[in-house]
Design brief:
The protein has 322 residues and is of the alpha+beta class. 43% of the residues lie in helices and 22% in strands.
């Protein structure tokens, strides 16, 4: 076990603490990948040799230091690769690291539903379940040719490898400065989809305004939905073109939300993250000749000038992104 997947139990709207917590992980290894808004991956191969402790023991030290220095608890999953560490995190609890030892990958995966495997979307899971391949153990035992007929040659091969515990993921060091986030917690666990969508509208409007304020555009939008039981679902989408346009961000956020197919879900908060930021001057914008789109963009420019002159509350975030 050389990879840790750590999720810090940060209070809502306290994402600013994440860089300091990443610094804590970097005391053990320089190979740290931020997973905003509250997580990280850490490759401890060198640390295990240097400190003479395994990843689970180092995870305990990390947890104690996070509590002592910042008053923040964390849940940690450990595994031979990034995929297994992420999946182990789902079974972890505060104070207890969930570890997948080398050699026990197939046993760990066998009973899990096929949808639990990262990269398996709703449509793929539905197709596999229709043919009785509803667990990763059954997928692992299925002939490669069968999987390739069902989901395609490349996807079938990768699916079978992952179901058998072959984890080729690597930790890619990065920084949180390459992204922006907007979190919308609810006062109480919220069942109403209309309120979910209004929160997404507000968050997308805020992201658009912040991106335009720093002359950036984003390539990817990530939605995180947190539930009453403290579990969470995260989905990402690469945009058709890099943008800071609030309406485009809102449409992408709605599409991500609808794809989750939530039914009577008790939602505690929703969060949007704009990733893959690049300077706006380097991005190309496809002309649409749509007068409505051009009108909205002109209104955004006026709203941005109002914010710059009178402050961020001069225009409510999301009010122009409907």
């Amino acid at each position: 076990m050389t990879i840790l997947c750590v999720r810090f139990q940060l209070p809502p709207m306290y994402e600013a603490a994440l860089p300091e917590l990443l610094g804590l992980l970097e005391e053990f290894t320089p190979v740290v990948e931020a997973l905003p808004p509250d997580g990280a991956l850490a490759d401890l191969r060198g640390a295990e040799r240097y400190f003479g402790r395994d990843a689970v023991e180092l995870a305990s030290v990390i947890r104690v230091r996070a509590l002592a220095r910042y008053g923040v608890d964390c849940v940690i999953g450990a595994g031979p690769g990034t995929m297994l560490a992420r999946m182990a995190l789902r079974d972890a609890r505060p104070g207890l690291t969930r570890a997948v030892p080398e050699g026990e990958e197939r046993e760990f995966l066998a009973g899990k539903p096929v949808a639990a495997l990262p990269g398996v979307g709703t449509a793929t899971a539905r197709t596999l379940c229709e043919y009785g391949l509803d667990t990763l153990g059954r997928v692992a035992a299925a002939p490669l040719s069968t999987l390739q007929r069902l989901v395609g040659a490349k996807t079938g091969r990768e699916l079978r490898e992952r179901a058998n515990g072959v984890d080729r993921g690597r930790v890619g060091p990065n920084g949180v400065s390459r992204s922006l986030a907007a979190d919308r917690p609810f006062d109480r666990d919220e069942l109403d989809p209309d309120r979910h969508r209004r929160a997404l509208l507000s968050a997308a409007g805020e992201l658009g305004a912040r991106l335009r304020a720093v002359d950036k555009v984003c390539r990817t939008l990530t939605l995180t939905v947190r539930y009453a039981d403290r579990s969470a679902t995260t989905r990402s989408r690469t945009l058709k073109e890099p943008t800071a346009h609030s309406a485009a961000l809102t449409r992408a956020a709605y599409d991500l939300y609808e794809a989750l197919g939530l039914q009577r879900a008790r939602v505690r908060s929703v969060a949007l993250r704009a990733e893959g930021l690049t300077p706006a001057e380097q991005a190309s914008h496809q002309l649409t000749f749509d007068p409505v789109d051009e009108k909205v963009r002109r209104i955004e420019e006026v709203a941005d000038r109002a914010r710059a002159k009178f402050g961020p509350r001069a225009v409510m975030p999301g009010s122009l992104a409907a």
